[in-house]
Amino acid sequence: MADGLVLGPDGLHRPAWASVHEDLRHYYDTEWGLPVRDEHGVFERLALEGFQSGLSWATILRRREGFRRAFAGFEIEVVADFGPEDVERLLHDEGIIRHRGKIEATISNARATIALRDLDGLGPRGELGPGADLADLVWSHRPERTPMPATAQDVPTTSAESIALAKELKRHGFRFVGPTTMFALMEALGVVDTHLLGSHRRGSSQVWTQDGSPA
Record's Gene3D superfamilies (predicted)? Predict the structure, then answer.
């Protein structure tokens, strides 16, 4: 291991967390940190990050298809219509994390996502005009520069932007959206790039350059 990276059998450098199992390597190589800008995609990842709180990402990743089946493919309107009987059904679904608070938060967050669409403007000063949605709100918290971590210890767990995003989402009724969870969401969506320097994925989002400036 050099500079916090692990050299894989394919000759590519990855962080330790992405070098343990093939499913994590595949997720790191093909999805994590690539830009997701559509409302549906952002909602799914918001839900999964909420379920991940207090757990490992591997635990969530290996149940991802179970979550998709349980939550109707994360179709926002369908999840928003879930009622008490659906909560009880999900509490008995072994394909997901059976946590009542997180299940109820996902349903509540679907309703909050729909409610955002009807506002005249999003953001503290309404800077995102009519027609803005959850994805626009999340991406509006993109920083001016992204971190430049050389080791895992250099990767932040929160930022001024993730704190602001958490505050804004809570203001609109979202739950399980603390600053740490929101920073993890921003990493997953490509809003920030925390690939370690020297990783073969650094700068791959085309949102950020290798040196941390906007692409």
Answer: Hypothetical protein, domain 2 (1.10.340.30)
Check 39, 44, 49, 187 and give the catalytic one. 49
Domains in the chain, CATH or no CATH each: 5-189 (1.10.340.30)
Take residue 128 and report the two structure tokens written for it: 């995102």
Active site includes 57?
yes
Of the candidates 17, 57, 75, 104, the residue annotated as catalytic is 57
Query: Does residue 56 come out as left (phi exceeding 0), alpha (psi in the -120 to 50 range) or beta?
Result: beta
Q: What gap in Å lies between CA 69 and CA 71, rounded to an integer?
A: 6
pLDDT exceeds 80 at position 2? no
Task: Give residue 200's pLDDT.
Answer: 95
168 vs 69, 92, 165, 175, CA distance in Å? 29, 33, 5, 11
DSSP class of residue 82?
-
What are the tens digits of pLDDT across the range 7-57? 999 999 999 999 989 999 999 999 999 999 999 999 999 999 999 999 999
